[in-house]
Amino acid sequence: MVTPGGLVVLTDRRLARGSLVAVVRAAVRGGAGWVILREKDLPYASRVALFEELRAVVPDGRLIVAGADPLGGDAVHLAAADPVPAVGLVGRSCHGFSDMFDVDYVTVSPIYPTESKPGYGPALGASVAAEIAGEVPWLALGGVDSAGRAAECAAAGAAGVAVMGAIMRARDPFGVAASISTVFQDRLATGLPSLAPTHPGERNENTPCQAGVAGYPQDVDRGEVCSS
């Protein structure tokens, strides 16, 4: 079974600059391989409609629904105490040591302090998260807002990084997604130290010059969204 890895985007339409579908489309073009649809407060029919809109811009089979109802799909991401439904792919949120053998992957959080949930914690750090997940494929969630932090999670053994705020709030979700996903995959593949800055906006002398994101020319189709 293929489980989520690389850059995984969690949705939050309230944080999104422009329409949620446009932000997700741009992030996918930038390298996000999976998307988890949250928006649990929407009426059921509206949530199903949004699921269908997102399914048109997310790679086939890579859209996961938060909650036990897959909304016509075949993948869910559960809260810690949710029962496991009969679907193809099941993930679960995890915040500490627990039995996780009934799921295919877990998110472990918070890895770092997070702007989206101030005061949520304490931050575990990537190495502790790896211990919590054990042999279960895990995604680092919480405060992964830069390529440098994504590289730290890759070095600790994360299968991927789950990112919400840094993508949803971005003026250039394509660029943020490209930066995080490229550095994560490079660090995973090579095991070499990341050349990426640790935090958004930071630069170091090894980071390539960029118009929007390292290594990506301005004429790439970013699927940009309105920043208003």
How would you describe this structure to a colleague?
The chain contains six helices and eight strands, in the order βαβαββββαβαβαα. It has one domain (6-190): Aldolase class I (TIM Barrel). The relative contact order is 0.18. α2 (44-55) links the parallel β2 (34-37) and β3 (63-66). It is globular and about 40 Å long. An eight-stranded parallel β-barrel has the order 1-2-3-4-5-6-7-8, surrounded by five helices. It has 228 residues and is α/β, with parallel strands linked by helices. Pathway: Cofactor biosynthesis; thiamine diphosphate biosynthesis.
Question: Topology of this structure?
Answer:
Layout lengths: L5 E5 L9 H11 L3 E4 L6 H12 L7 E4 L8 E4 L10 E6 L10 E4 L17 H8 L4 E4 L5 H10 L3 E4 L1 H4 L4 H18 L38
Parallel strand pairs: 1-2, 1-8, 2-3, 3-4, 4-5, 5-6, 6-7, 7-8
Walk across the major sheet and give the strand order: 1-2-3-4-5-6-7-8
Which bin fits the share of residues in helices? 25-40%
DSSP strand (E) fraction? 15-25%
Distance between termini?
A: 40 Å
User: What is the level-2 CATH architecture name?
Assistant: Alpha-Beta Barrel
Indicate the radius of gyration in whole angstroms: 17 Å
Helices, by number, come to: 6
Taken in chain order, the helices and strands follow as: EHEHEEEEHEHEHH
CATH superfamily assignment?
Aldolase class I
Query: Structural class per helix/strand content?
Result: alpha/beta
The total beta strand count reads 8
Fill in the CATH topology: TIM Barrel
Low-confidence stretches: 192-228
How is the main sheet built?
8 strands, parallel, barrel
Mean pLDDT rating = 84
Shape: globular
CATH class category label: Alpha Beta
Number of domains: 1
